[in-house]
Write a structure and sequence with these properties.
Length: about 210
């Protein structure tokens, strides 16, 4: 391959990746006239790095946000639990892992992403979209469970939270002007945590 031709291919790949927020798929390259062979060669040469099968970023580029990795590679996932608690200000603890919910039928192999540390909650399909909304995470739009679903999840996955985080979340929610107690009640009944939740929340909300 001629040097000029190789430089053109590098420039094309760089533009494609930059136009896709730092992460591009093999199909994005192929659509611009590159071959799988070109992609494999530039990966071998160290110009691009594979994040997961079929997904690439420019080698050595550290400014690709974790939020963007989630948006590009796990668009069906929903931010939940510890990450959602931090997002709403119900926890002061910045999680080391991204807590994400996926359907129980979700392919485990798709969750193997080298540059992303996750804590995965597999949710039954009937409850998966309950309370789903969109949030702004560091400039990237991600699906996230709303306040009420997040509080119900605290009861559903009580054993996965330490006491301090659990208590802080409930107390902060009780004082939150944006809370929606009607939705909290509806979600809790659907998720079968109503009895546990109401006993605690009635005390916090002053009966």
């Amino acid at each position: 391959m001629k040097v000029g031709e190789q430089m053109n291919k590098k420039e094309t790949i760089k533009n494609i990746i930059n136009n896709n927020d730092g992460i591009a798929k093999t199909s994005d390259f192929v659509a611009e006239g590159l071959t799988n062979y070109d992609v494999a060669n530039l990966c071998k040469e160290g110009y691009i790095e594979r994040i997961r099968h079929g997904y690439y970023k420019l080698a050595g580029r550290e400014d690709v946000k974790e939020e963007q990795v989630i948006a590009s590679l796990l668009p069906e996932s929903i931010v939940c639990m510890e990450s959602a608690l931090f997002y709403y200000g119900y926890s002061d603890f910045l999680p080391r892992l991204w807590s994400i919910a996926v359907p129980r039928t979700f392919s485990r192999t798709r969750l193997h992403i080298d540059s992303l540390a996750t804590k995965v909650y597999f949710v039954q399909p009937t409850l998966f979209d309950l309370g789903k909304t969109i949030g702004d995470f560091n400039g990237v739009h991600l699906a996230v469970y709303d306040r009420e679903r997040t509080i119900c999840d605290c009861f559903k996955y009580r054993t996965k939270l330490d006491n301090e985080m659990f208590n802080k979340a409930l107390n902060t929610y009780a004082a939150d002007k944006k809370k929606n107690l009607r939705n909290l009640s509806i979600y809790a009944k659907e998720m079968r945590v109503y009895k546990k939740m109401i006993d605690v929340m009635e005390v916090l909300l002053g009966g």
